[in-house]
Structure formats: structure tokens, C-alpha cells
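Trying the structure run again after the queue cleared.
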Amino acid sequence: MNISTTVRRTVTGVVVAGVAVGVSTVAAGTASATPADHLCTAGEVTTTLVPGSPGAGQRYASVQFTANPDRGCSLRGTLELHLEGAPNVMIGNPSDTGPLVTIANGQSANMLLHWSAIDAPQQQETPTAITVTFPGAETGAPTSVTLPWQQGP
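Done. C-alpha cells:
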């Protein structure tokens, strides 16, 4: 896969019980960085959570966005994320919108998630799902996708 655009943002969160959690995301477009006709909506891409390889207390996963066949659209370099079922874990989403990442029909872009899991699992919260919010393209209303979380604490 030829990756021509990389957009980065860092999001940090803190668990009230004293466990620090960091989430870093990277979106990589497989097409050009020029804007498509419109921003992607939740229905125009297939969104999946792909497990990564853990090591030394570090955990990784990626949210993968694949444009539907015969369709291309753009994603903002930053998308809003929320963890469900872990009320004491907070994620601060940046206020900037970042540059556009364009994905062509059938191509994919990825957002890398990174967090730490150093304390014992019983001292950490395990989310049940992650919600990705897309800015509303035509209507101005946001759309979202909720994916089951099976990545542990």
C-alpha cells in the first residue's frame, strides 16, 4: 500500500483510580491529500478495530476506515473518540480539525491507538466499545460508529 499522507494527533486520558492511559492516533491516507468532494460519513466507509501487538506495558490497535466500492471521500486528520463502559477513563480530543486525508474507493486509512497497561488489570478499566464520530458532511450533524472493544484494559 502506498501511503502518501500521514496526519498525527495525541490524545491523553487519566483514570481516576490513578492509572495513566495514553492514546496516540495516526491517520494515514492511501490516496492524495487533496480534498475529495465531501467528508466521509459513517455510511460511506467500513470501520473496523484491528488489534495491534502489545509489548512492555504498551498496547496498540488501529481503527481502519475503508471507503466503500465506487466511492471516495475525505476524513479529517482528527476524529473524535469516546470509550464506552469505562466511565473513569477520559480522552481529551483536540480542538483542531487537522488536514484532510482522502481515501479512494476501496482504499483504507488507519488511525493508530496507543495506550499503556502497566498496572494490574484489576486496577484498570476495560471499555466495552469505542465510538468514532465523523463530522456531518451534507447535513452538518455528526454521525458515529461504535465498535466493540476487545483489546483488554
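The beta strands are 5-14, 20-29, 45-51, 58-67, 73-76, 80-84, 100-103, 108-116, 129-134, 143-148. Worth checking whether this holds up in the mutant runs.
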